Every structure is written in C-alpha cells, then in structure tokens.
Amino acid sequence: MATTLSDTPAPGWRPNTRLWGIFGLLAGGSLLYSAISSWRDDHVFLINTTESLPNWAFIIHRGHIPGRGDYVFFDPPAHPLVKRHFGARPHMFGKIVYGMPGDIVTHRGAYVLINGKAVAHMKPLTRFGEPLTPGATGMVPNGCYFAGTPHKDGFDSRYAEIGFVCAKQIVGTGDPIL
Q: What is the pTM of this model?
C-alpha cells in the first residue's frame, strides 16, 4: 500500500539551538556589560603608590560620605607646596578620617589632638627642607573632615597646606583590598 502525505507524521518543531545560543550570549553579555558599566560609574580601582597608607590597592566608592576611621579619597588643594611635590595636576590623595564635623582639633607642642586624643605629630620641614605650617585648630566645620595617616611623614590635615578636607574635594570613600 502506498503512503500518502497524510499518513506520514508531521515533523515536530525543532528549535534552532545555535540561534538560541547566540541570542542567549548576546542577552547575557548585554546584561553583564550594563552591570559592569553601572558599577564603574560608582567605583574606581586605585593603586596607592605612597607609603602614607598601609594598603596599596583600594576600591573607591564615589560620592560616599566618610565616617570616622574611613579611608577618604579627595582632590588636594591647589597650594604651591602641593604643586611642587605632586605636580600641577596631582592625583587624588587617600587618608583616614580622624576628625568629624564638630570635633575639636588642638595642638600640644608638635602633636595634633582631636577631642583630646593625639592623632599625629607635626614636623617643621618637608623632607626637602621646606617649611610646613601647622594646620587649623578649633572645631572641624560642617561638611569638612580632619584627614590624616599614621605615617610619620604624612602630608595631610595636620598641615595648613592641606587643611581640612571638605565635601567639594571628596571623591569618595575606599575599601582596602590589598
């Protein structure tokens, strides 16, 4: 008996796996790129090339307001001493927040105290023999921070050439990763 077209089973629909695979890769890649792009807009990877901080690699969270003990990253002031040591367009500085708005900064000899606790020791001269000016005393203003380092040669808020770090200078806070 002869078979007719109606007697043969209709072929089942079979997905084109190659086409669906390509579509899946494109969709997944697009989502991954979007996530990385969004993360990149809010974060920076920084390699610290100085000895002022104990860590050498940081993830910086742009726009985050620092708290006491946080690593804060900021654009240094356009002071002639900063320009001489770090160039006309210095990279951002990274320090630790020792003083918050409302804290009281005092000097006892060469020591800097915040709310009565010693946080830094000032030197009279830079390592190149240039005079350093002691930083401000009194209350840390609103929107500003006393930023320092544990390093004996730290160039930070203990000196007037850097001063308090204020909101308009702050890039963000950082987490050490190495």
A: 0.80
What's the rounded Cα separation, in Å, for the pair 171 and 158?
Answer: 20
121-172 per-position pLDDT tens digit: 999 999 899 999 999 999 999 999 999 999 999 999 999 999 999 999 999 9
Structure tokens given for 25: 């890769």
Strands of 16-63 (E only): list them: 43-47, 57-62
For the beta carbon of residue 107, count every other beta carbon within 10 angstroms.
15
Helix (H, G, I), strand (E, B), or coil: what is residue 95?
strand
For the record, the structure tokens of 47 come out as: 């390699």
> CA of 38: how far to CAs of 31, 42, 66, 110, in Å?
11, 7, 22, 46
Distance CA 128, CA 35 (A): 46
The answer on pLDDT for 110 being more than 90 is: yes
Dihedral (Cα; 91, 133, 156, 116), 10-degree rounding = -170
CA distances from 2 to 6, 8, 26, 44 (A): 11, 11, 48, 74
